[in-house]
Design goal:
The chain is α/β, with parallel strands linked by helices and 365 residues long. It is built from 14 helices and 8 strands. The protein has helices at residues 3-10, 36-48, 74-86, 97-105, 115-118, 121-131, 149-161, 189-197, 207-211, 217-226, 253-262, 273-309, 317-333, 338-361, and strands spanning 25-29, 53-55, 89-93, 110-113, 138-142, 166-171, 203-205, 231-235. An 8-stranded parallel beta barrel has the order 1-2-3-4-5-6-7-8, surrounded by 5 helices. The radius of gyration is 27 Å and the shape is elongated. It starts with a helix and ends with a helix. The structure holds phosphoenolpyruvate (PEP) and manganese (II) ion. Phosphoenolpyruvate is lined by residues 31, 57, 61, 93, 114-115, 142, 172, 206, 209.
Amino acid sequence: MTDRQQLLQDIKPLSFDGVNPDKPLVIAGPCSAESESQVLDTAKSLAKNGIKIFRAGIWKPRTKPGGFEGVGIKGLLWLQEVKKETGMLTATEVANHEHVVAALDSGVDILWIGARTSANPFAMQEIADALKGHNDVTVLVKNPVNPDIELWIGAMLRIYNAGVRRIGAIHRGFSTYGKHLFRNEPQWHIPIELHRRIPNLPILCDPSHMGGKRELIGPISQQALDMGFNGLIIESHCNPDCALSDAKQQVTPDSLNLIINTLVLRQTKQSTENLALLRQRIDECDNELLEVLSRRMAIAREIGQYKKEHNMQVVQAQRYSTMMSQRHNQAEELGMSGDFIETVMQAVHEESVRQQIRVINSNAL
Ligand code: PEP
Ligand code: MN
């Protein structure tokens, strides 16, 4: 069976008792569990604001040694406390066999796999093996640090092959060299392609790790929802500036509440009749474009024939640059970007040249 068929068959939606299935799923909580009071304060404020699923990292994968590497298993007791006091479901990151066993034994509801771990097939297989027999757990797999969709799908397949069906993906962006606006580049086409290949796989967005800064959480979340993502996982800390990890990207529960309440949920179930009419007009325009292009290519072939008979070169640089600057100016007059039209014309010209060369090299006169 192919990857697509296997994953397509019976992945279950991310539904949880007490969580409204018609709204995007929101998971929130600190990057790291730091102390019992930090965990409980944050959880209680989040719960008061209607958040139903609490996240906190217990084991933290750090880029360099010497950073805060998490509180370890004692944090699991704090998560149990969160559950008892707020009724929230809990989620934590696992990266090896030991983590999975400890988290499941202590009743964590959702396990997530971090970007450094999903990039490592050995670690993924170890986690998958530890999950065998625990078919009811929910496992969310972050994209690997590098933009490799096959590696991401492969990581999820290992979990699937262990018998887990409650699987989701988390898009948190991809590492790049140097400083950029985003801490991790979104490369939205990758989750879009993931959705195309596995339409029933729930995909959440992690705007905290993608943006790396508080101001970007709102805009990234909105973009993800506009693109049809199923939910968000957002870092929230009762005292973000003092957080032991990822301080710049964490927000207080109240700021998070504001961000979430400002998000616009587009109606997907609304009638799309008017949209269908507009799309029909777009189809008509595209048909005309294709016909015009095909007429243009027919003329290009005639030119090829002429050049062949007169033993002329296919590309004439002067003609090419005059045409490009004319099209650039015409496009701007018509309200389009001249650079955009140059890109289009380059592609059209390339195809024209290809067709002319074919004519010139054919035996028929
Ligand atoms: C996290 O969620 O705290 C985390 C470590 O994320 P990522 O694996 O996306 O870097
Ligand atoms: Mn973090």
